[in-house]
Amino acid sequence: FSSVLHIIILSSLPFFFTTSVFMSYPQAHTIFQRHKRANAFFWEEFFQGNLERECHEEKCNKEEVREVFEDNQKTDNFWTIYYDGDQCDSNPCQHGGTCKDMIGGYACKCPDMYIGLNCEKGN
């Protein structure tokens, strides 16, 4: 039985060696397509970050956002909304309270005469 198996394997070897594992450029180009990134120059790392390139063409991290804004406060303002949406969109703070968006939540700064999570209680 093993000699028959050896003969089958050896007779099929020419088939495997004549089949190419590579494709021609036109064939490969129809399967593998890459779109150019914005400002995709080899020296892009020397310039200030680009928000379109870093966060809209692909998912970005906070370090890349920091490269774009080069300012901690602007970075934090963008990142809290980019990361999990703007929790202040629904205007949760009542009675003229000011909403500050945070990752995973929000905080209300209430006028002097109101207290509570959403400034809902009179003082």
TrEMBL record:
<dbReference type="InterPro" id="IPR000152">
    <property type="entry name" value="EGF-type_Asp/Asn_hydroxyl_site"/>
</dbReference>
<dbReference type="InterPro" id="IPR017857">
    <property type="entry name" value="Coagulation_fac-like_Gla_dom"/>
</dbReference>
<protein>
    <recommendedName>
        <fullName>coagulation factor Xa</fullName>
        <ecNumber>3.4.21.6</ecNumber>
    </recommendedName>
</protein>
<dbReference type="InterPro" id="IPR035972">
    <property type="entry name" value="GLA-like_dom_SF"/>
</dbReference>
<feature type="disulfide bond">
    <location>
        <begin position="110"/>
        <end position="119"/>
    </location>
</feature>
<keyword id="KW-0245">EGF-like domain</keyword>
<keyword id="KW-1015">Disulfide bond</keyword>
<keyword id="KW-0106">Calcium</keyword>
<dbReference type="InterPro" id="IPR050442">
    <property type="entry name" value="Peptidase_S1_coag_factors"/>
</dbReference>
<dbReference type="Pfam" id="PF00594">
    <property type="entry name" value="Gla"/>
</dbReference>
<dbReference type="InterPro" id="IPR000742">
    <property type="entry name" value="EGF"/>
</dbReference>
<dbReference type="InterPro" id="IPR000294">
    <property type="entry name" value="GLA_domain"/>
</dbReference>
<dbReference type="GO" id="GO:0005509">
    <property type="term" value="F:calcium ion binding"/>
</dbReference>
<keyword id="KW-0301">Gamma-carboxyglutamic acid</keyword>
<dbReference type="InterPro" id="IPR001881">
    <property type="entry name" value="EGF-like_Ca-bd_dom"/>
</dbReference>
<dbReference type="Pfam" id="PF00008">
    <property type="entry name" value="EGF"/>
</dbReference>
<keyword id="KW-0472">Membrane</keyword>
<feature type="domain" description="EGF-like">
    <location>
        <begin position="84"/>
        <end position="120"/>
    </location>
</feature>
<keyword id="KW-0812">Transmembrane</keyword>
<feature type="transmembrane region" description="Helical">
    <location>
        <begin position="6"/>
        <end position="25"/>
    </location>
</feature>
<keyword id="KW-1133">Transmembrane helix</keyword>
<feature type="domain" description="Gla">
    <location>
        <begin position="38"/>
        <end position="84"/>
    </location>
</feature>
<dbReference type="GO" id="GO:0004252">
    <property type="term" value="F:serine-type endopeptidase activity"/>
</dbReference>
<dbReference type="GO" id="GO:0005615">
    <property type="term" value="C:extracellular space"/>
</dbReference>
<dbReference type="InterPro" id="IPR018097">
    <property type="entry name" value="EGF_Ca-bd_CS"/>
</dbReference>
<keyword id="KW-0964">Secreted</keyword>
<keyword id="KW-0325">Glycoprotein</keyword>
